[in-house]
Design goal:
Length: 644
């Protein structure tokens, strides 16, 4: 048993190294499974208790990250993020002007919204904008990822990495306080010969304690904002030049997609009313063409940019199915072909867009769209019609349906299951990203987000006071707002569950447990002693070594896991070298958050890889100068802000 106890540090180090290697070479094994297996191994071998092993799953960081993912999904569901994205790009007409308009708002937004959610929201907006202007999204998607990473370190909640660092700091406070209490007990019982050594250890622990306290909401801003400014200037001035000019894959396939005829009616509450076609953004829509405007039987065609949109107008478009999905997201604009179309926001959320192709046995053949009675037969409504190789009349309701016509329908979610084998249709398929927006909840969800930001800003002030209670907890703040979003129907409970990224959550929770094993086994202290003896006690050299080690690990494995594993080592270095651990803690927080060199270094880098058509070399070419600039900025400023 004593032999096993002595081997605990080496077991912890060996397990951690094994996880790192497995992530690199066993790509088919999920990352979360590797960390779970490692956590089980160190627990079964007695390095940590079962309670300590599963403590990561109830940690404030994991709960806060989960809740923020739900909040971000609520903002997207209500159209708030769509509105913000369209406002940001505005009238930009090339990649450079688009990047200039994106930089400021994205960096600021990323400081308060998790960067993964922000990239998920902005990526479709950028892709649509590029399709409209026949520009390459590869010039904008990787900068989008980099800008959200840079903005994420401007506050405590911008990235999951800083939340994990804060969670480990809370653990460190509890550990140091327990060590102080233990030393005080030992001193009371010690002999005169033993007392000086114990008192020296006690003094070191008391010196460390104030410097391992959790970060305030804006503490990391002192280094995060300068890094964000330097990185943003790099992207604006030269970063875009290193990126390829590849055309979007969807653009290449665009000509082969079905073009529908769709008729939309302007409701009295539509924000486009009394605007010109150009000012309303209907002149150069993403893959759509406005054919005519029907105003109480008066046909306006061709439509000019100076024509006005009025309440009750029927707007006739031709366009691809994915662009019709975007058109349907405009509040107050509803399909007019079928009078049974559900347009009330509360009813629309129960419905989805589905494509069907009519077969010869369909009872609809020979009837008009208006008389087909889709609602009674299939509990569906016609949105648009496509007929290959023929020009359709502009009045969709008067179109006589023929064999092979493709219809875009508004259906219930169970339509595909019920009619997949229906002989009335050749083919039944769902339309991606066709869930309608709850525009009637946009102001409410936006207001809840503002409340959350204000609350999170105040938590850094409340956290030091006992009277604050739950009001001083970022996790409770995030969970409360997430629950209110569900309660107020900004999104449904099932949509909230779908917003949770289980792989990310499990990886973080298991990595926190593995980090505990590094500390409890003495492995962190062993590594700290080895580093101090190898590079000396020069704090500047130690800081550079810690930062570089963090960056290298972050580029090869998940960033939150690196933060959880290396932070105990930073605290141990402070104790071992009689140094303030705060600079090393901040170096890890910045280094683990700034992953620019590989697609696997940060989740947002991986998210843009496919749509942007990037190769690993593109990340290296564009990200290496940025990583060097951030490293120089961080290494120069951190010791001046938090002295050794």
């Amino acid at each position: 048993m004593e032999l096993l106890q002595a081997a605990h540090p080496w077991i912890a180090i060996g397990t951690t190294v094994a996880v790192f290697l497995a992530i690199q070479f066993a790509r088919r094994v999920p990352v979360d499974l590797l960390f779970l297996l490692a956590l089980c191994a160190v627990t079964l071998l007695g390095l940590i208790t079962p309670t300590m092993a599963i403590s990561g799953f109830s940690s404030r960081a994991v709960i806060a990250i989960s809740a923020l993912l739900v909040v971000s999904a609520g903002l997207r569901k209500t159209g708030v993020l769509d509105w913000i994205g369209s406002k940001i790009l505005g009238n930009a007409n090339n990649e450079r002007s688009a990047l200039m308009r994106l930089t400021g708002p994205i960096v600021v937004s990323a400081a308060f919204v998790l960067n993964t959610a922000l990239v998920a929201m902005m990526m479709p907006v950028i892709l649509d904008w590029c399709r409209q202007r026949n520009l390459s999204p590869s010039k904008l998607l990787l900068p989008l990822s980099y800008l959200t990473i840079l903005g994420g370190v401007c506050t405590l909640i911008g990235t999951s990495t800083t939340l994990v660092v804060n969670e480990k700091l809370r653990d460190s406070v509890a550990i140091v306080e327990a060590e102080i209490a233990s030393l005080e007990t030992q001193i009371a019982k010690a002999t005169e010969e033993q007392r000086p050594e114990l008192e020296l250890q006690l003094a070191k622990r008391r010196q460390v304690l104030p410097n391992v306290q959790p970060m305030g909401f804006f503490e990391i801003s002192w280094i995060g904002v300068p890094c964000a400014l330097v990185g943003s200037l790099y992207m604006l001035l030269i970063g875009q030049r290193f990126l390829p000019g590849k055309q979007d894959i969807m653009e290449q396939l665009g000509d082969q997609q079905r073009e529908y005829l769709v008729e939309m009616q302007v409701q009295p509450d539509c924000p486009l009313i009394d605007k010109t076609v150009e000012a309303a953004g209907l002149r150069n829509l993403h893959g759509l063409f406005l054919i005519e405007i029907d105003r109480d039987g008066d046909i306006i065609t061709p439509v000019t940019p100076r024509d006005f949109v009025r309440a009750g107008d029927r707007l006739v478009f031709t366009g691809l199915v994915n662009t019709i999905v975007d058109l349907e997201k405009i509040p107050g604009l509803i399909p007019a072909a079928d009078r049974t179309y559900e347009f009330h926001p509360q009813s629309r959320v129960q419905r989805h867009l589905t494509e069907v192709v009519l077969s010869p046995s369909s009872p609809l053949i020979g009837t008009t769209v208006r008389k087909a009675n889709f609602r009674q037969l299939y509990n569906a409504a016609v949105v648009a019609v496509h007929r290959n190789g023929q020009r359709l009349p502009n009045k969709i309701g008067n179109i006589v349906l023929e064999i092979g016509d493709t219809l875009l329908l508004q259906t219930r979610s169970d339509f595909i299951v019920q009619h997949r084998n229906n002989r009335d249709f050749y083919l039944v398929s769902s339309v991606d990203d066709a869930e309608p927006r709850r525009h009637d909840r946009a102001l409410l969800s936006g207001g809840l987000m503002i409340v959350l930001i204000a609350w999170l800003c105040l938590t850094s002030l409340f956290s030091g006071f006992e009277f604050a209670g739950g009001f001083g907890s970022p996790a409770i703040a995030a969970v409360t707002i997430a629950a209110l979003m569900i309660l107020t129907q900004c999104l449904s409970a099932s949509e909230a569950r779908s917003a949770l990224d289980i792989q990310v959550i499990v990886t973080i929770a298991a990595a926190l447990g593995l980090g505990n094993a590094l500390w409890e086994s003495g492995a962190a202290q062993m590594i700290a002693e080895a580093l101090v003896s190898a590079v000396g006690s020069n704090p500047w050299v130690l800081l550079v070594v810690i930062y570089l080690m963090t960056v290298i690990f972050t580029e090869t494995i998940t960033n939150t896991a690196v933060a959880a594993l290396l932070l105990p080592i930073a605290v141990a270095i402070g104790q071992q070298g009689d140094l303030n651990p705060r600079p090393f803690i901040m170096a890890i927080a910045i280094g683990a958050s700034m992953a620019f060199l590989t697609p696997i270094g940060y989740q947002t880098n991986l998210m843009v890889m496919g749509p942007g058509g990037y190769t690993p070399r593109d990340y290296l070419k564009s990200g290496l100068p940025l990583a060097v600039l951030i490293a120089i900025t961080a290494m120069t400023l951190i010791p001046r802000i938090w002295s050794f």
